[in-house]
Write a structure and sequence with these properties.
12 strands; 561 residues; single chain; 17% strand; 12-stranded mixed beta sheet; alpha/beta
């Protein structure tokens, strides 16, 4: 099912990489991680890439010893990255069951000075809510007998002086499903339960590595556009699937693609991050900030890979992708696997630090486990983020299959004379959002100009893509330049609050978050005394969206002049 010209990954090479990655625990900023980065660098250099191993400051949090005690009995537990450390001697407080820890549950219950008992894997969203509610601690009940390592910071990347106040103030631990069930039953029966928690968490600034490997197009011009291909290298425990599988995919894809360099229309930049697991994407966030100008001028797409090649990972329909690259993902997945990609929106995860720059992006995790009755945060297997993420959970055939999909995607992005952006899907999605918003706003705010600008965008894109018929290098260059400039305005509309130069929080966001200020006004009940206040912000939000659409349309018009 692989088209002519698509090379076949070497399964033996892939598994040799896997065995190398299985040798070390790679906590962010540790000597063991750096040793493994040297292996990556050696491999990439051998394929002909120019490499740079960067060391940069990152705010890293490594969980250490933890203890949870009830009535003198110690429960098996772990603490989490970015949890607060407990005071000397630990903390003791009454336990309050808050269900899954939603905003509504924290609003309904008094947790100030208490420990919140929460159903499910520890998350940054619950940590933010519990901290705001004045809780002293969070005790999470795992959905299984396994204890899942997590980073609970709601700050994307390393915190600044303005965002560090958003870091959790609670002590956060996780216990097993069965131990949590007993505590829940005591509380349901009306008994008071007091819990003693201890947690040691090493949170501080430290140097972390970041490997950048570049190979330009045949012209090898210094300012040539490039595709960015990335994945994190730091791990929880040995992390052979997460992220050894993806790192093996990256190395083998980079090797095979380098042999086809003569056919490339643009370059390839391969980036291996640290700080994903223990710094809330600190490596990719730092890179987006430090190299914003270059990325803005030159990067055409970002392909991120995570946790490829797992045993039982038969579902290939649910990976995240921005609207304009849905067709690229769908074509590759169906060609390799026969499955039809559903085109899920990205979540706020997977080192997607480049939406503010305006770079269309694909993937993160690519292959998933079938649906399970157990409620997990991801469909990556019960061993994810546990000591059991070892080589026995890698399926060589699945790893080869996933690598073929990634190869096919990258070939298209590298070799297509005109960038394969499908903004028809984008304009349909935005148009639907604006029509629904207009109906709900009624006469509170006129957004007719946004609807008109979206229709103009649709027509301009049709005209720009019609230029492909000219099939000249000059025409293709003009179209590509216009599409890239337009994306710098359109991607942030779709995936950010509208702020290009600061990262939004690492919290769940709604589709088209740039429209949120207008939706807040639209959803106010009739007769609300707050309408005038909300209108001020909604009007400013409208202006930001109108400006972005105007700039995108201007970029496309330039290609037609």
């Amino acid at each position: 099912m692989i088209e002519a010209g698509t090379p076949s990954p070497d399964t033996d090479r892939l598994m040799a990489h896997i065995r190398e990655f299985a040798r070390r625990v790679k906590l962010s900023g540790t000597p063991e991680e750096l040793e493994s980065f040297q292996y990556l660098r050696s491999e990439m250099k051998s394929y002909g890439y120019r490499t740079e191993l960067v060391s940069h400051d990152a705010f890293i949090s490594l969980p250490g010893r933890a203890k949870v005690e009830v009535n003198g009995v110690s429960l098996r537990c772990i603490t989490h990255s970015m949890s607060a450390s407990s005071p000397t001697g630990g903390l003791m407080a009454a336990l309050v069951h808050v269900g899954e820890g939603t905003e509504a549950e924290f609003s309904r219950l008094d947790v100030a000075g208490k420990i919140a008992l929460v159903e499910g894997i520890a998350t940054e969203e619950v940590a933010a809510l519990a901290s705001a509610a004045g809780a002293l601690g969070q005790l999470h009940i795992s959905p299984t007998e396994h204890l899942y390592e997590m980073c609970v910071s709601p700050v994307w990347g390393s915190p600044s002086q303005y965002t560090r106040a958003q870091l959790p103030t609670t002590v956060v631990c996780t216990i097993s499903h069965d131990d949590g069930d007993q505590l829940r039953r005591h509380l349901t029966a009306g008994r008071e339960v007091r819990v003693r928690m201890e947690a040691e968490v090493d949170t501080n600034w430290r140097k972390t590595p970041l490997l950048v490997a570049d190979l330009g197009p045949p012209t090898d011009q210094d300012d040539a556009p490039f595709v960015m291909f990335s994945g994190h290298h730091d791990t929880w425990h040995f992390g052979v699937m997460d992220n050894g599988g993806a790192n093996a995919t990256m190395l083998e894809a980079a090797r095979l693609l380098a042999a086809q360099r003569s056919e490339w229309k643009r370059g390839l930049r391969v980036c291996f991050w640290s700080g994903h697991s223990h710094g809330r994407y600190s490596g990719s966030a730092w890179y987006a900030d430090e190299y914003f100008d270059e990325l803005d001028r030159r990067c055409v797409a970002h392909v991120n890979v995570d946790s490829t090649g797992a045993k039982g990972a038969t579902v290939l329909t649910n990976s995240g992708v921005t609207d304009e690259l849905k067709s690229v993902a769908a074509e590759a997945i169906e060609a390799v696997s026969g499955q039809k990609h559903a085109g899920r929106r990205h979540g706020r995860a997977a080192d997607q630090s480049f939406w503010g720059v305006g770079i269309p992006s694909m993937f993160g995790s690519l292959s998933h486990q079938p649906p399970s009755p157990v409620k997990m945060l991801t469909a990556l297997g019960w061993w994810w983020h546990t000591p059991h993420d070892t080589i026995d959970h890698i399926d060589p055939e699945n790893l080869t299959r996933d690598t073929r999909i990634v190869l096919r995607v990258l070939q298209r992005l590298l070799k297509s004379p005109v960038l394969p952006y499908d903004y028809a899907a984008y304009t349909v999605a935005l148009g639907d959002q604006l029509m629904k918003l207009s109906e709900q706003l009624a006469d509170r705010l006129d957004i007719g100009r946004l609807i008109a600008a979206t229709r103009e965008l649709e027509q301009l894109l049709i005209s720009v893509l019609d230029m492909q018929a000219a099939s000249s290098v000059e025409a293709a260059d003009r179209v590509n330049a216009a599409l890239m400039r337009a994306s710098r305005w359109l991607v942030p509309l779709n995936y950010t609050s509208g702020e290009r130069f600061h990262h939004d929080p690492a919290l769940p966001n709604v589709p088209w978050p740039s429209l949120a200020g207008m939706w807040e006004l639209a959803q106010l009940p009739a007769g609300s005394a707050d309408v005038a206040f909300y209108t001020v912000h909604a009007r400013q939000t409208r202006n930001r969206v109108a400006h972005a659409l105007r700039e995108a349309n201007t970029a496309l018009k330039a290609a037609l002049d």
